Amino acid sequence: EDSVVLARLAINRSGVVTPDFSVRQYSGVRLPSGNSSNGEITGPILRSGGSSDSSLVVIDGDLSVSGNGNSYFAGSLGIGITEPHKKLHVERGELRVRASHHKADADIGTFYADNLTQGIGIGFNRIEAIGSNTDQDIYLIPKGNGELIVYGGNLTVSAGKIQLDGHQQIVFTDKGTTNNLKLQLWDGYGLGINGGTLFYATATKHSWRDGNGTNERMALTTAANGGLTVKGTGKSSFAGSLGIGTTDPGSSKLKVQGNLTVTGNATLESLTLNDNFSLGGSQTLSFGSQTRQMINLWNQDYGIGIQHTTQYFRTARNFAWYKDGSHNDGALNAGGGTVQMVIKDGKVGIGENDPQTKLDVNGDIRLRGQDIQDAGGTNRITVNDNGTLELKDKDGTTALTINNEGKIKLKNNNSASVNEFSTDGTLSGASNFAVPTEQAVKSYVDSYVDGKFVRGMIMMWSGTTNNIPSGWALCNGSNGTPNLTNRFIVGAGDQYVVGKTGGENMVRLTIDQMPSHNHSNGSYNRLLKHDRESTATITDYNTGSEPNLYSSRIIQYAGGNQAHENRPLYYALTFIMKL
Description:
about 0% helix, mainly beta
């Protein structure tokens, strides 16, 4: 009741107070801190907020609280703002808190929920959950598309686990594709990017295990000679191609660059080998029960197969068996080894790589049996155990026998010894037992022929022109021979000297060469007179005078102007000359 609206009070030096009762709504008490030049007291003013905010105390100036007691604010405290939004509101300024210790306790700044069950404490170098709950999560939540970013240093989780919701991702903003690990699980273990490759790094081996992490199902060691081991007993499949020992399996589903060892059974629809293939000593190679060509050694022309009750070997050209040596690409080349047998164009060579006959043996022949048969199964040659050789005729009876004493026995049972063969070359005897040797026959022929054929002699040859006897040449104008092709030979003499040629391939007769003959037209065979023409002489056959006729006929003519054949019957042979 004794109070008035705060007015202005002036206190002079003498202590006299002079009130100014004019209303001053925001008047207050100035706390002296000094005097101005005119003697007016200066300093902050302590006043109320006015009638509308009677509970508000305003200090126009700085406030310093130096006591050690507690200060209490029932409302909100705004620093830099007159209308704080929170209990403590710092506007357009910084807040600094310095602890009175440097312990690891998170009590430098503490923030609690109303019931104190959840809270965050800041202390030393940590942010810690400090609520009363035994278990409390800490959420770091970016806004919108914002991110939680750790700059510099490492983010280390010393205990517990990092868990992500199923739809969350770990994204590395570093786009580098060096060999550095993006995710390091331990020193030398982790995931990284190199170029366009995601790689897995480990110091020893990679291991794939079951759900409990105990049982290993697959392992990959990382040493230079390391390998992949699949321990699971289930099925493994590759939709693409698999290369072992190579990064380029090509068109093959499985390509092994190196050796492949199979200790159990292997079932293959088809197998193509570009390198070696081997089976263990106790293993077998089976092709099932189908009849077909099972093995192609190069292509379909070279292989091994089975047809009904028959195992066959196929080749486009030759078969060969070699002993020792090494591979050589040349045809029928033993590569430094020894030829055992060759089959070439239906000819068999034993110890011979180029057989010239159905059986060409380079070496000795030993018969375990006695008989050699012809195509019809008839015995033609028999070698008996006592050394007797028998040659059989067409009915299989013995035609010639050579006994172990060297004597020859013919079918008539006459025999002759080897030393009774005629070798003098005369062949003049008439012995039934003396058989001429090759030398005797040659000597006889040479003595008969010697001097009979000399250089320049020309003979007729009934053979072909590409099979002229040795020492002779075809008379075609080459090799010093006269050209007698398509020509007759005329004996040389006074009219024809040696080497003269002539004659024609075609001759047409002239009038002078034709014999005398008549031309007639039916019964007309004379030339007669007509008044309008001059007269002609009547031939010798006319006996009367020349009549005067008023009609005549044309005498017909004949002939085709063709050449005529003047050769007798002939047979063409070639002429050859002795060189």
